[in-house]
Amino acid sequence: MANWYLQNGRDSDVVISSRVRLARNIEDFPFTTKCTTADLNKILDMIKEVTPSIGYGLKFIDLKDIDDITKITLIEKHMISPDFAMKKNENGAILVNDDENICIMIHDEDHIKLQVFSSGQDLENLMNLAIEIDEKLGELVRYSYSNQFGFLTVSPTNVGTGMQASVMVHLPALTLTGNINKVLHIVNNFGMNVRGIYGEGTQVQGDIYQISNNQTLGLTEKEIIKNLKTITDKVIEQERLARKYLTKDSVSLEDRVYRAYGILKYATKLTSDECRKLLSDVKLGTDLGIIKELSDAKVSKLNLYTKPGNLQKYLGKQLEGYDRDIKRTEVIKQILAE
User: Fold this and answer.
1) Does 252 share its domain with 236?
2) What percent of the chain has a predicted confidence (pLDDT) above 90?
3) Which of 30, 88, 202, 254 could form a disulfide with 198 if both were Cys (CB 3.0 to 4.6 A apart)?
4) Is the Cβ–Cβ distance between 38 and 173 less than 8 Å?
5) pTM for the complete prediction?
6) Whether residue 137 sits in one domain with residue 21
7) Does 199 score more than 60 pLDDT?
8) Quick one: 24 and 56 in the same domain?
9) In whole numbers, what is the pLDDT of the chain averaged over residues?
């Protein structure tokens, strides 16, 4: 069975993926910003020792043992943060399973960042899985916890449950109809963060936005999930209405998505940014049933393997930018021909 990032889940015409993340720190150790090298190493040894007892097929991998291209592929899959991957942390590690739907970062901002992932909208199931893993890990190491404030974290915005839930949403029709800023403004007013696909400070690519909760204190995990799901359902509704509006001018819409498909299919050189924009239109056309030559699975595969890191991993070799732009079109043709 394909990994979660190559699957399509519920509402996946709009919601590409869901993630639930829990921030935790270990009792009797300073936060990572104040830890000595000896402290960081002790925590690593502690986590490494208990990894087999957590279960779920998790493997402990030191960050220093992961090559740069693999780090980029993990960033592109949203499994690790860019800052975590690129800071050359000699004291960092990840715990990851073969399905890659669980990835625990050790020594990102906090000692532990437990993450679970799924395609489509699957927040409630992910919350249950995250809590299940968290309880098992919490029996093996003691967390920093306050009866007054809840779980203690480096960032004050994570104190409380320490939970951040997020969805990646594809909103091309709201962009084309000029309603995107209005909808995003409403989302912000309901206490949610809207960011680029790689988190805070990153650009929006291919009309994909990340929506997440910005409050963890004073709310239960179930309330966080319920609030995010309510907002996500509203965003889905608005995007689908915008798509319905676009189909009124079917000729223009068909022309747009098939032009994008034609360029993808026949171009001999494409940059990563060009590809993201084209794939946004192609996904829209496929989801609306206009482009019948493509399946959802192929669109997911194109989205992943045209990104710089995963492109190089797919081809099994390191490439410079210009060569990647040429090889990208060859990989597209291979996937389309499958």
Assistant:
1) no
2) 78
3) 202
4) no
5) 0.92
6) yes
7) no
8) yes
9) 92
Backbone angles phi, psi at 228, to 5 degrees: -65, -40
How far does Cα 182 stand from its chain's mean position? Answer: 24
**Which residues partner with 61 through β-bridges?**
94
pLDDT of amino acid 88: 61
Distance CA 100, CA 92 (A): 18
Other beta carbons within 10 Å of 267? 17
151 and 237 fall within a common domain: yes
Overall average pLDDT of the 299-312 stretch: 96
Burial class (CB in 10 A: 0-12, 13-18, 19+), 134: buried
Model confidence band, residue 71 (pLDDT cutoffs 50, 70, 90): very high
Burial letters 29-64, b for 16+ CB under 10 A, else e: beebeebeeebbeebbebbeebbeebebebebbebe
> Which has the closest alpha carbon to 113: 210, 39, 193, 31?
31
**Token pair of 70 as six digits:** 């693999």
Token digits of residue 270: 């494409």
Q: What are phi and psi of 20, to 5 degrees?
A: -125, 130
Which residues partner with 145 through β-bridges? 151
CB atoms within 10 A of CB 307: 23
CATH of the domain at 36: 3.30.590.10
Q: Do 299 and 233 fall into the same domain?
A: no
167 near 123, Cβ under 8 Å?
Answer: yes
156 & 290 share domain: no
Tokens, residue 324: 């990647």
Joined tokens for residue 317: 């070799």
Domain check: are 301 and 315 in the same one? yes
- Answer whether 131's CB lies under 8 Å from 102's CB: no
Residue where a domain terminates, one of 212, 242, 272: 242
**Structure tokens belonging to residue 256:** 């747009």
Q: What is the pLDDT of residue 89?
A: 63
The gap between the terminal CA atoms of the chain, to the nearest Å, is: 17
